[in-house]
Write a structure and sequence with these properties.
heterodimer; A: 114 residues; mainly beta; 7-stranded mixed beta sheet; 4-stranded antiparallel beta sheet; 0% helix; globular; B: mainly beta; 5-stranded mixed beta sheet
Chain lengths: 114, 110
């Protein structure tokens, strides 16, 4: 069974802290993604990566950075957490190819910044 | 990104078929039609996708209009577990970036 795991289901951090959200996939997928989901705004893409050490900005990259040192792991970093980054964070992965491939999502991390 | 339009909510009864519509009048020839759903307190999960022909899998069927300007996700026999938000998304061939709209919140009555 395919699997995308995220390091925490719930996380509470203080304003100004550096926050790491980890995502691991076991499907040898080339592509990995970070989204955030907020009521009324839906899912929005923060960053994605097509390969190890590669990254691309999504629609809302401000305040975030990412790291992909190994194929199976994609980290989202909040350099200095702020209250407006309180959200549900979802990681996903997919295979590459000339067709169209489904994305597999993790269970999400609900981050609260106080 | 081409846009899709879905009803905000729909309701159906357990063990009955459900037809979830999606309009995508600005679809281009290389856009795939993807459907995802999100169960409560979970990440989205892939349901089905298609390009031109109707598609079936173990979860659902996808009926695509001949002009491709609309599609319908069909759940043949709804269960309570099918209560979720269903998203219809267009994806250019070879592209990976999903753009989620607000989706349709499906309620299943026992």
């Amino acid at each position: 069974d395919v699997k995308v795991t995220q390091s925490s289901r719930y996380l509470v951090k203080r304003t100004g802290e550096k926050v790491f959200l980890e995502c691991v996939q076991d499907m040898d997928h080339e592509n990995m993604f970070w989204y955030r989901q907020d009521p009324g705004l839906g899912l929005r893409l923060i960053y994605f990566s097509y390969d190890v050490k590669m990254k691309e900005k999504g629609d809302i990259p401000e305040g975030y950075s990412v790291s992909r040192e190994k194929k199976e792991r994609f980290s989202l970093i909040l350099e200095s957490a702020s209250t407006n980054q309180t959200s549900m964070y979802l990681c996903a992965s997919s295979s590459s190819g000339s067709g169209s491939y489904e994305q597999y999502f993790g269970p999400g991390t609900r981050l609260t910044v106080t | 990104d081409a846009k899709t339009t879905q009803p905000n909510s729909m309701e159906s009864n357990e063990e009955e078929p459900v037809h979830l519509p999606c309009n995508h009048s600005t679809i281009s020839g290389t856009d795939y039609i993807h459907w995802y759903r999100q169960l409560p307190s979970q990440g989205p999960e892939y349901v089905i996708h298609g390009l031109t022909s109707n598609v079936n899998n173990r979860m659902a069927s996808l009926a695509i209009a001949e002009d491709r300007k609309s599609s319908t996700l069909i759940l043949h026999r709804a269960t309570l577990r099918d209560a979720a938000v269903y998203y219809c998304i267009l994806l250019i061939q070879g592209a990976q970036k999903l753009v989620f709209g607000q989706g349709t919140r499906l309620t299943i009555n026992p």
